[in-house]
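Example for reference:
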Amino acid sequence: MCESCKKKILVGTTYIKFSPSRFVKAHIRCIDCPPRRSELTTSDFLSQMYDLEDQIGDFKVDIPDKITKEVVDGISDDIKSFVESITSELENLQSDVDDKSSNMPDNLQSSPVATMLEERSSAVGDMISELEGIDTDFDYDSLVSDAKDSGQKLREVFADAVDSIVTDIGSICYNGE
């Protein structure tokens, strides 16, 4: 039986069997439920980071056909809320890494593990800075003006602006070990 979707895996059917290490029980999945990256590591930090990256990559915004000031403000708030949520989770992850580093004995402060923790904290800090640098506010009047100037429909102009922000958010990734 697939551990993810609970479908019965019939004899002779292709399935996926994986384990993050030889010391951890193997997982069995149907071919429709491949493992996520976070399930393929024994590192708690990387597991959390991969989950956050997947959330960032999966982020989408649906644009309705009729665009009003309320719709623009609502979508702006949704994007801002998402960015704040991811930023908060990254700050918590960075805090955990910093705590691990500061709790190391003095004689290990210059060890490879301490260096790795410092690099991780720095890389997470870079992600936070990138997210905080994204402008998630839309000005309805500017969108209307841009639509009139370009001869496009308001929905197209707004969709382009949203796609640009979603692309900026989606380009943020962890660049560490």
